[in-house]
Protein 1
Amino acid sequence: QVHLVESGGGLVQAGDSLRLSCAASGYYSGYNFAWFRQAPGKEREFVAGIRWNSGNTQYADSVKYRFTISRDNGENTVSLQMNNLNPEDTAVYYCAAGWNSGVYHIRAREGYDSWGQGTPVTVSS
């Protein structure tokens, strides 16, 4: 498994930007990485994903064109740049990693077996 540690959450106002980072340790060549989020009383949902080897990305419709996921091979980190935040983005954000076996879609929670502890993001109106 990959060990993941998130950082960068906080309290911001609507329209602000925030950058989340996920530090990864272990062997993860061939893995998919993703950010999920869980708002109070709601299911954990996919936000954005990236394939470590190719750098190909996917986004949930609700964040497309506002959020950008990226990976830094040298720093062993996966980041989520979040722009134009709104109160609906308020949630605990989780970094996840899983072997790209081809069985699960990159958006599926079942495809990830390593999870970070989560970092809270609160957007005030």
Protein 2
Amino acid sequence: HVQLVESGGGSVQAGGSLRLSCAASGYTFSNYCLAWFRQAPGKQRDWVATIRGSDTTSYTDSVKGRFTISKDNAESTLYLQMDSLRPEDSGMYYCGVYDAYGGRCSFREDFYDYWGPGTQVTVS
């Protein structure tokens, strides 16, 4: 049974930093596509970043150079380091996972099979 639990959200001033974590269990962590998505109130859930393996990462353009996705296979934990935060980065942040069977990781929400409950990020 796959379980994901996010943590690390909070309120921060513009220009500040936060580090989100996603603790995972119930599957072979290293083989799957893992991603961060975010959702602002009244808007759809948008892709932020993905990682597969140890160094295959992708980012949406608005966070490139500011956010870093990483993971610790031994701890089965996914991270999102967020620097130079902007008010438009505010929203509920979710981690998602699916098995791409060796293919490229998708940025589409409907590809992801499992989700955590989310952690709120507010930038003012």
Protein 3
Amino acid sequence: VQLVESGGDSAQAGGSLRLSCAASGYTFSGTCMAWFRQAPGKEREAVAHLHSNGGTIYADSVKGRFTISQGNSKNTLSLQMNSLKPEDTAMYYCAASTWRLGVSACARVRYNFWGQGTQVTVSS
């Protein structure tokens, strides 16, 4: 399995960015994919989870601003980020799990595969 993120960039506060994750060798069926982020000096945190049945879970800090979805390609994961804030600055990682669980388990499932990350920088 290989996950490759793209779309990271610099943006002004209030702006938008769209991240994409291309997954190869992975079957998104009955499983979870997610976006995580890690800011300098901070622990990695979950941003949003997507179950293959369409169910989603968001961190409180991004609810109403970010949208996780399956991309146009079946093996693409997207994260639309609107109303960006400086505190959204971080390295963003795509993750995929092979555990076949329900959507409620996405927030606690172990993610087996990770991308290399894409940097998002938001300035005020």
